Amino acid sequence: MITFEQALDEVTKQIPSLGTERISLADSLGRVLAQAVVSDIDMPPFDKAAVDGFACRRADLEKPLQIIETIAAGTVPLQTITEATCAKIMTGAMLPIGADCVVMVEQTELLPDGSVKILNPKTKNNIAYKAEDIQSGEVVLQSNTLIAPQHQAVMATVGSTEILVYKKARVTVFSTGDELVEPEQQPEQGKIRNSNGLQLVNQAGRMGCEVRYGGIIPDTAADSERMIREAYAWSDVILLSGGISMGEFDFIPAVLQKLRFDIRFQTIAVQPGKPTVFGRSGDKFVMALPGNPISSFNIFELLAKPMIYRLMGYAYAAKRIKFPLAVDYKRRRSARLAFIPAILDEKGVNPVDYHGSAHINALSAADVLFEVPIGTTDLCKGDLVDVRFI
Ligand code: AMP
Ligand code: MG
Prior knowledge:
The protein is 17% helix and 31% strand. The chain is an alpha+beta fold. The chain folds into four domains: 4-16 and 167-311, Molybdenum Cofactor Biosythetic Enzyme, Chain A (3-Layer(aba) Sandwich), CATH 3.40.980.10; 20-43 and 137-166, Molybdopterin biosynthesis moea protein, domain 2, CATH 3.90.105; 48-128, Molybdopterin biosynthesis moea protein, domain 3 (Molybdopterin biosynthesis moeA protein, domain 3); 321-389, Beta Barrel (Beta-clip). α1 runs parallel beside α6 and α4 (221-232) packs across α5 (252-258). The radius of gyration is 30 Å and the shape is elongated. Bound molecules: adenosine monophosphate and magnesium ion (MG).
């Protein structure tokens, strides 16, 4: 049995990144940059008004100013500001030559003769200066950035409309177990519905993977071998759930070995999720997750996610933040690092009602998992715990 830290190290070290491809900016959400993005312009490209108001000379702020022009955003000023003159200017419009400040319209008064009185001669400049945010030729996004809408805004600004990204990981998801029927079916006696299949398909799907659902593998070595073999060629990653414990029909580890996966670990000191198999065969990876739905969800988040993101060029590391427990927390055994579902609110970390890893709806209201370290059974209200969002 290895520790969680060792397992995390194993699933993130020496993971080759997939190839790259060129895509359009519009299709780039959730993809990972394979190249730095460089700006082709200064931002702002010109000195511009940061407020709606009057562009004028600071030296003239005590005088009534004569309006010589109205400058709309997107137009080029035609006049130069000289003594005791100003231009009406809109936010984002080019500053006219001669002006060194923009007085907010709220801090001015229009006089009956059509001139403008400045009510606040101590005004800020209210100018966004050319290149104060970005200089032409500057790197605005580093390679290996996971693209979110805010990054798309940056790329749109610098005209990066065709970008180089890492390919999507191809992930095949299998469920295993003769007790499983698909959700559309009414389970007969002794059967339950397959909940891990859809859960894992979409945990991988929301990371931007290309996912195929391979179905339910019956509990025989022959079926396991055949179905995994069929998925092998297309997949970068095969995710399985169930079939890896000590039961008489838990064939998966032996089958993976037979298929020449190099099994890197089979048990980890994590709760839930002790039986977790990770193997690799060249550039192909397999992770077999424990069958109980909370375990398979957690281990996907804890280990499959960092591994798959590496393949896609992104060095994902869950943000762990310390928050105080809102209540006392106790557990009986302490041999494993536990990840407990909880709601995070202004009082702190509130463990949800949780009967164990088969308690399918325990995660429904949870925002976070908090850690209970190895060797710890009792935590008190107010103790700081490591929390990660799910
Ligand atoms: P196993 O590791 O195959 O013994 O499975 C452990 C527990 O998880 C058993 O109670 C299974 O019925 C349950 N289980 C396994 N796979 C699934 C699944 N895909 N959906 C729901 N429960 C599952
Ligand atoms: Mg099973």
